[in-house]
Design brief:
single chain; mainly alpha; 3-stranded antiparallel beta sheet; 26 helices; 20 strands; globular; disordered N terminus; binds protoporphyrin IX containing FE; binds calcium ion
């Protein structure tokens, strides 16, 4: 039995936007999924042995590698004027995909030495005192640096790295300073009791901070209130996404620790960087970089530069590591300003592990550089609030929630809003009578106003007065012009949707418009990631194996409250840095005729926004991203990143991203590459030549020269050089870590876009509209780019030809109509203002106690609390009590009534 309410479609011609081409609610396009014509599909060949149908390309993204190779798959859509692709239905997901099991050291009857076993809480508290002494000596070291004017010079590459790239908020610095008490205490105990590195974590993890005198050094989190828990809108910080028993840290919040795929390998079991298996030094990262990395552009024939740029945007959503700072929050100097090592005393704070540059370095020797700056990542408060090895801290919400747009804290979220009509702040530029499309708003409280302008020496002109650094939810937005234009598109899409919703629902206030828009935009984001980006990155078979493929229709019930969505340390510190190999040395400006007009050298444009301002340039960068072939993930990196990263003007050199990545892996205690092969079910190498299954003979030879043992090889450098996994852009090890992460981000997120029966669930019609979105559509709708290939991560080909942005058949557009809230006389308005549509019946539900609210013209299941309704259907089919303290009291009432459940059963 269907909902008796049938919406009348919105056909008022008076509604049109200022830019008619960007029309949002086209009545012709209203409706569910795409209909396949027998005519269009009759000529479709079998693809991979399966029946195929002619559909818009975005519905074939998952099959792209196959359809590209199958002749005759380019087709004309049913109405005769849209180009499409013949591809099969989406394959069914495997139901067996599971995340890595929890990394742990102390699970299986580990045995401690007797004297270690005897450590008690008194001993721990004594060590706290000694830890305090250590802290004073750290302060003294920092004062010495200050007194001797040893600091990071503003303008230097290190300053850009620490101040702009790894900008830590005051709150993060405070938390990491607090966590240091635990670290120092643990170090003292390990030293005093001579605990072996392999025992130290298990020995100390027996002690909870709350039982010690440093019980208040880590923050507590507020419990989630019922109203927020049941809100259709996710919170900015991610609180209430999952529930946590009192006293436990909720998952996925900003400033919480990364989780680990494998328990760490720290030399001292606590925080010292890994050493070689034989106890010796590992090769210096720069030596590895010099030996293995070349700057060769091996262009992909299937992917565009968008793969690189979109990946970086995803990275800026889900993670931002906190770097250790001096007590006042300023960057830690780890080398002299001349590129030499500081004195031993200057390192006594323990926050530096500078990278040694060999004397005969073919590049840096020209500049007499021997020391590359490297400050350690800041320790996090451990989620278990116990003593133990150091974990690192993520400043962003771990969820895929566009925190790079909206911010990860309530403060930033407020800063980017206008509080008018749900819109976000912009820069509006006008030349004469012509408005340009909006740019991101200026960052007026951040760095000095001029830092993002180019010098005259670079640009040939005086810096235009309007040039500013831009403000967004993540402070790395200005890292390069490509990043800026990427965020610009999404910002414009927010304001475009908000405008559309405001016209559809004039009675919605700013807050409602902002929240609804945010919910839609984040869902589009999810859809693009799982429908277009991931298939290109890790391939269809990996996605299918883990159950990550998007659904063609209907709702998912995949949410699992036992899956921890937090970002894996190895994902942040290694796997998702694959993109560094894709970064092009130059960013291009290409016009609508696909002719390159100009290119800019990356080293001159880190954190420079000037090129984004001239009219038309946003579009030219966007066209370049869709046109220039991607580089490949391999041991080829542009010199802009390996010798000139964040180069200070006139210096001639910058930092080396490959050295930083390798050193970061050691800083975070990653195991050797071989251990991750084992984790991923790949053959473990006993000898170097066993690596030949995934690495080239040249690479294996180089590794054999560099490392003593095959177990010593650093994760990043080996995995980035692997042969590609089936249908993937990356090799099997990175693919395995990345897939695990995206499984967590899907199954561990109560607000994942296609979930049914959750407070944040859409109606089916709304969800079908979200499914129409492709990344090409977002670019088309939010720029003056006139044409695009429908699958924008993929290069132009016979099945992916350039079409007009106005071709809504080839690049479908979503219709906001299902978000129109319809007044109906049958509504019953409850005391709390919620409107209930009493006769709205749902297939499969008994409405005895459950009221359904017509939401946006559709039926959605909701409970009416004033009628004593206290339970809802959880995604796993369990009728679940809403009261949080007893959330685990659940009854399986399938087919029965879920609405009122006695507290005790
Ligand atoms: C303009 C291009 C880029 C620049 C200048 C850049 C620069 C950097 C730098 C300096 C770091 C910190 C290194 C360290 O000290 O540990 C970093 C980290 C990282 N990069 Fe990139 N990167 C770029 C592109 C990308 C791309 C395309 C990806 C996409 C896959 C990516 C993913 C990451 C990730 C995941 C991290 C770890 C961040 C964290 O832990 O907070 N980067 N990048
Ligand atoms: Ca996030």
């Amino acid at each position: 039995q269907n909902c008796p309410y049938q919406p009348t479609y919105f056909e008022d011609p008076a509604y049109h936007s200022e830019r008619p081409a960007k029309f949002l609610y086209d009545a012709d396009q209203q409706g569910g999924g795409y209909k396949y014509s027998s005519g269009g599909s009759a000529h479709c060949p079998k693809v991979g042995g399966l029946e195929s149908h002619c559909r818009p390309a975005k519905d074939c993204a998952v099959w792209y590698d196959l359809v590209r190779k199958t002749p005759g798959t380019a087709c004309t859509l049913e109405n005769g004027h849209g180009k499409g692709i013949c591809c099969p239905d989406l394959p069914l997901n495997s139901l067996h995909g599971k995340p890595f099991s929890k990394a742990g050291l102390c699970q299986q009857g580990y045995k401690l030495d007797a004297h270690v076993e005897g450590i008690d809480i008194v001993a721990v508290n004594e060590a706290v005192d000694a830890g305090h002494l250590l802290m004073s000596s750290v302060k003294a070291t920092e004062k010495r640096l200050f007194d001797n004017n040893i600091r990071v010079r503003p303008g230097s590459d290190r300053h850009t790295h620490s101040w702009f790239f790894f900008h830590s908020t005051n709150e993060s610095v405070k938390i990491s300073n607090g966590s240091m008490y635990g670290v120092y205490t643990a170090q003292q105990l390990a030293k005093r009791y001579r605990i072996k590195p392999e025992q130290v974590h298990c020995a100390l993890n027996r002690f909870h901070l709350k039982d010690t005198v440093i019980s208040n050094t880590c923050p507590t989190f507020p419990d989630c209130d019922l109203k927020t828990f049941n809100s259709p809108f996710r919170t900015i910080t991610g609180i209430c996404n999952n529930i946590h028993p009192p006293g436990h840290v909720p998952w996925g919040l900003p400033r919480t620790q990364y989780q680990r795929a494998l328990a760490p390998n720290y030399a001292d079991g606590l925080w010292m960087p890994r050493r070689a298996k034989n106890g010796g030094e590992l090769p210096p990262p720069r030596v590895i970089s010099l030996s293995v990395i070349r700057d060769i552009d091996a262009p992909s024939d299937t992917d565009t530069t968008w793969m690189m740029q979109f990946a970086q945007f995803v990275d800026h959503d889900v993670l931002e590591t906190v770097e250790a700072k001096l007590a006042d929050g300023s960057p830690v100097p780890c080398c002299t300003d001349d590129g030499l090592f500081l004195s031993e005393q200057d390192y006594a704070h323990g926050k530096c592990i500078p990278v040694e540059i060999p004397k005969d370095d073919p590049f840096y020797s020209k500049f007499r550089q021997r020391c590359m700056q490297f400050a350690r990542s800041a320790p996090a408060c451990r989620t278990d609030r116990r003593l133990g090895y150091v974990e690192q801290m993520n400043q962003n919400t771990h969820f895929l929630d566009l925190s790079a747009v909206y911010g990860s804290s309530d403060e930033v979220a407020l800063e980017v809003r206008t509080f008018k009509n749900g819109a976000l702040n912009v820069t509006r530029l006008r030349k004469g009578y012509h408005y340009q499309m909006d740019l991101l708003p200026p960052d007026d409280v951040g760095p000095e106003i001029s830092t993002c302008a180019l010098s005259k020496a670079v640009s040939g002109i005086d810096p235009p007065p309007e040039v500013r650094c831009f403000k967004a939810g993540d402070n790395r937005v200005n890292v390069s012009p490509y990043m800026v234009v990427t965020q610009t598109v999404i910002l414009r899409e927010h304001n475009r949707i908000a405008e559309g919703l405001a016209e559809l629902n004039p009675h919605w206030d700013d807050e409602r418009l902002y929240q609804e828009t945010r919910r839609i935009l984040i869902s589009q984001w999810h859809h693009v990631i799982y429908n277009e980006f991931l298939p290109a990155l890790i391939g269809r078979s990996k996605m299918q194996e883990l159950g990550l493929l998007p659904l063609q229709k209907g709702f998912s019930g995949d949410y699992d409250d036992q899956v921890n969505p937090s970002i894996l340390n190895e994902f942040a510190g290694a796997a998702f840095r694959f993109g560094h190999s894709l970064v092009p040395g130059r960013q291009d400006l290409i016009n609508q005729q696909r002719i390159k007009e100009k290119d800019i050298l990356l080293r001159q444009h880190f954190f420079k926004t000037q090129e984004v301002y001239p009219p038309g340039n946003v579009d030219k960068f966007l066209i370049a991203l869709a046109t220039v072939p991607s580089r490949s993930v391999d041991n080829y990196f542009t010199e802009e990143m390996t010798n000139h990263l964040f180069e200070e003007e006139g210096k001639g050199f910058g930092m080396d991203i490959v050295s930083l990545n390798i050193q970061r892996g050691r800083d975070h205690g990653f195991n050797g590459y071989n251990a991750y092969r084992a984790l991923c079910g790949l053959p473990v190498a006993k000898e170097f030549h066993d690596l030949l299954d995934l690495l080239s003979p040249t690479m294996v030879e180089k590794f054999e020269l560099l490392y003593d043992s095959v177990d010593d090889i650093d994760l990043f450098i080996a995995a980035v050089s692997e042969k590609k996994a089936d249908g993937a852009l990356v090799g099997p090890t990175f693919s395995c870590i990345i897939a695990d992460q995206f499984l967590r981000l899907k199954r561990g997120d109560r607000y994942f876009y296609d979930l049914g029966r959750q407070p944040g669930s859409f109606t089916e019609d709304q969800l079908n509209e979200i499914r129409k979105i492709s990344y090409a559509r977002l670019v088309c709708d939010n720029s003056n780019v006139l044409s695009s290939q429908p699958l924008i991560f993929k290069s132009v080909s016979e099945v992916n030809p350039i079409v007009d942005c106005e071709s809504f058949d080839s690049i479908p557009r979503m219709n906001l109509y299902p978000w129109k809230e319809v007044e109906n006389s049958a509504w019953h308005v409850a005391e709390d203002g919620v409107k209930w549509f009493p006769d709205c019946d749902f297939p499969g539900y008994d409405i005895g106690y459950v009221q359904q609210v017509a939401d946006g013209g559709q039926c959605a299941q909701k409970c009416k609390e004033s009628k004593g309704c206290n339970a809802f259907w959880a995604s796993d089919g369990w009728c679940t009590l809403k009261t949080i303290p007893s959330w685990h009291h659940r009854a399986h009432l399938s087919g029965g009534i879920c609405g009122f459940v006695p507290e005790k059963f």
